Amino acid sequence: MNNFTYIAADTPKQAANIISQNPDAAFIAGGTNLIDLMKENIAKPNQLIDLNKIPGLDEITELPDAGLRLGALARNADTAYHPLVQERYPLLADAILAGASAQLRNMATNGGNLLQRTRCYYFYDIATPCNKREPGSGCAAYDGYNRMNAILGSSEHCVAVFPSDMCVALAALNATVNVSGATGERQIPFNEFHRLPGDTPQLDNNLQHGEIITSIDLPPGGLNKNYSYLKLRDRTSYAFALVSIATAFELKDGLIVDARIALGGVAHKPWRVTEAEEFLKNKQPAKESFTQAATLILKGAVGLKHNAFKIELAKRAIVRNCLTALNPDK
Amino acid sequence: MKSEPQVINNEHDKLPAALAPELDIVLRVNGHDRTITVRPWVTLLDALRGRLDLTGTKKGCDHGQCGACTVLVNGKRINSCLTLAVMQTGNDITTIEGIAQDGMHPMQQAFIDHDAFQCGYCTPGQICSAIGMLNEGHAHTRGDVQELMSGNLCRCGAYTNIVDAIMEVKEAQGNE
Fold it and tell me: PANTHER family given for it (chain B) (predicted)?
């Protein structure tokens, strides 16, 4: 790790004020990703601002509209096992528990989960070009070993995927990210939080330097009856997704009245296609419709040398997971 | 003679000109307050091993992938390689050296009884992780134990016996 100074902040405002005066400072919360990136000499902050001592940001509280507020400093494990999350948002609980290991989930925070960097092999290897790590240097993954890389929404500049499981469920559940900065507070709809790479792959999301995530709001109605999170990976546990799917339905009188399908492991952000979800509405839940929805979701998918299999894998996983969501207890 | 830590510093214009000051911190480890002086970048793992001579906690990958460095912080298991010592003030840290009360901890005895290791390098992390898992209370079946222990690798492949050992302790706790 490089040379850096350390300070613990007492309030979000103080943290925002310190970081806004230093373009090379970084916040640290759980640290499970940032410290690793610093050991690899990928992240090189000259100052770390520790958020862990800020009181109140680790709480999970009910909102007046029966939604739920997840504090940014609440740990992933405490969130997944929280009784209200288990009862109302089981899709989120399942997605969190599909990610990382128990040790990491005990440390990693909800805010940090949104801000984790890609695990693209070339982003992690400072001996190779990477436009995300060093803008303008090129993309070694594009013609390299790209089995884990994107099939949707990528650009010639970057084919990295966003690795979170938790965020796939948050996207499906229409969460909102609450952000505080030196100039005030704002809310970012979850699907507008992360970015596609385009020609600025160094930007993972739309958070500005100086802004801090304070919490994540879940709207009421957690779609807690017909839901399923499916994660396909190279080993049974503790591996990043090749493809993951968060599916939830609201059914009424035998018809689908609300459908959510979000994909992880395929793009630079959790992938949702409104057209496919609208297509399923007011239809009876049936394999044929799910297959057509899967085709709509994968429209425009492009396979690279080593990851073209993920296109068919994703389609089949969508259909399987939609069927599972109809009977989540089986 | 005390040697200065080596600093990787390729971007002199951005990084502080002088080494960041050493910080005096108090870590509560195995029930004792220990005062140490560290630079900000010293991980909890390196502080435990290098400053406090608690070498039971092992450094495997140093990247949170193997679980050899697992310790308990406020009763919960974490990877000590992925947190800084300066971030852990005020917390109750338990290492493999601190788990035994009167004689061996039941988990230690179970690992011996079930031959749950070969080389033993992952064992302190496995035992701390297993104790943390049973504290957390989410492992109900053998399958749960396998899933919730997946953050601890054993390259000798003693997994079957490790799960046997943990299940014995778990069932004994359940029968108390």
Answer: OXIDOREDUCTASE WITH IRON-SULFUR SUBUNIT (PTHR45331:SF2), OXIDOREDUCTASE, IRON-SULPHUR BINDING SUBUNIT-RELATED-RELATED (PTHR45331)
| Residue corresponding to tokens 């802004």 | A211
* Nearest-angstrom CA–CA distance, B65 and B89: 24
**Candidate from B14, B129, B147 with C-beta closest to A237:** B147
Chain A CB within 8 Å of residue B106 CB: no
Domain hosting B125: range is: 106-174
- Contacts of residue A22, defined as CB under 8 A and 6 or more positions apart, other chains included, come to A46, A47
B12 within some domain: no
Closest-CA distance of chain B to residue A167, Å: 21
Of B23, B63, B79, the CB nearest to A39: B63
Which phi-psi region, left, alpha or beta, contains residue B9 (left: φ > 0; alpha: ψ -120 to 50)?
beta
* Per-residue pLDDT reduced to its tens digit, A155-177: 999 999 999 999 999 999 999 99
Q: Is the pLDDT of residue A202 over 50?
A: yes
When divided into structural domains, chain B yields a total of: 2
pTM: predicted TM-score of the whole model, two decimal places: 0.95
Domains of chain A: 5-53 (3.30.43.10), 226-326 (3.30.390.50)
Q: Which CATH number fits the domain that encloses residue B120?
A: 1.10.150.120
pLDDT in tens, B116-156: 999 999 999 999 999 999 999 999 999 999 999 999 999 99
Check if A22 contacts B (Cβ < 8 Å).
Answer: no
Backbone angles phi, psi at A187, to 5 degrees: -115, 140
Residues B110 and B91 placed together within one structural domain of the fold? no
- Say yes or no: B35 and B61 in one domain: yes
Q: For chain B, what is the radius of gyration of the CA atoms?
A: 18
Burial of A292 (0-12, 13-18, 19+ CB in 10 A): middle
* Residue ranges of chain B with per-residue pLDDT less than 50: 1-3, 5-9, 12
What residues in B contact A50, CB-CB < 8 Å? 86-87
